[in-house]
Amino acid sequence: MEPGNIRSDLTITGTVSASGGVYHDVKVRGEGRVDGDVDCRTFTCMGRCEFYGSLKAETAKITGDAIVSQNMQAAKAKITGNLDIHGNAELQEVLLRGELRVDGHISGEELEIKGMLKAKGDCQAERFLATGSFTVGGLLNAGRVDVRLYGDSTAKEIGGDQICVRRGFGSGLGAMFQSLFSPSAGSLTAGTIEGDDIYLEYTKASVVRGNNVTIGPGCEIGLVEYKKTLQQDKDARVADSRKV
Q1: CA-CA-CA-CA torsion for 88, 91, 94, 99, nearest 10 degrees?
Q2: Do 114 and 88 sit in the same domain of this protein?
Q3: Rounded average pLDDT over 85-114
């Protein structure tokens, strides 16, 4: 973004329609509609805004509702409200406490999911950290996949260097609160899970492939293929296992 191309700030209060363009700050406090692509330094949404085009921002903070009809890019995004992206999402650092829905693919450096993620395509990241729930229609691929199950999550395929899936609560006080507020502690369902070091709990998968594989309690696995080690909990079910 060239400094000479930056317009004045765009602030939407009340019900406002605006045109796309290059802005410094875009703030939405009311209900707005923006026609055309938007390129801005910061995007803050405390109301509701629909973008009929693409959205590019260095930082985005969404506590209200935002809809992007095409692609969205952001270096940092904090979402405590709702964000719908009808194209692809390139969000480098994401903290999600609300709901994010992506019709295409989503990619970034670190995706921290404490709310709900729904992506119809692939999800690509260096680090994928989830204590909320997620649905990935394609491949979830990250160097590190760390999932704490508090609800049901699904992915067509999961790949990574280190993959760890655990129940959100263990024993003691946390388990007591979980039993009070959640009738089901949640599970992960995937077709194929493939990585170097894999630890799974309460996971249903057709195939698991890895170097060092641990199948923990509550798992239902069709086939495990491992190169070095395999450990299986007595409460896990594995139809077949092979050292390759």
Answers
A1: -20
A2: no
A3: 98
Q: Are residues 112 and 206 in the same domain?
A: yes
Mean pLDDT of the chain, nearest integer = 92
Write the CB contacts of 138 (distance below 8 Å, at least 6 apart in sequence): 105, 119, 120, 121, 122, 123, 156, 157
Same domain? 25 vs 143: no
User: Where do we find the tokens 């904090």?
Assistant: 78
Is residue 51 classed exposed, middle or buried when 0-12, 13-18 and 19+ CB atoms within 10 A define those classes? buried
Give the C-alpha distances (Å, rounded to integers) separating 4 from 7, 8, 23, 34, 176.
Answer: 8, 11, 11, 22, 58
Q: What's the confidence (pLDDT) of residue 181?
A: 40
In this structure, which long-range contacts are made by residues 123-131, counting pairs with CB atoms below 8 Å and at least 24 apart in sequence? 123/155, 128/160, 131/168
What is the span of the domain harbouring residue 41?
9-94
Specify the pLDDT at position 169.
Answer: 60
Q: How many CB atoms lie within 10 A of CB 196?
A: 15
pLDDT (0 to 100) of residue 5: 56
CA 79 from chain centre, in angstroms, equals 11
User: Tokens 């700050």 identify what position?
Assistant: 25
Give pLDDT, residue 172. Answer: 43
pLDDT exceeding 70 applies to what percent of the chain?
Answer: 91
User: Quick one: 150 and 224 in the same domain?
Assistant: yes
Read off the pLDDT of residues 144-183 as tens digits, 9 standing for 90 and up: 999 999 989 999 999 999 999 999 764 444 444 444 444 4
Question: Pick from 72, 66, 28, 27: which is nearest to 53 by CA?
Answer: 72
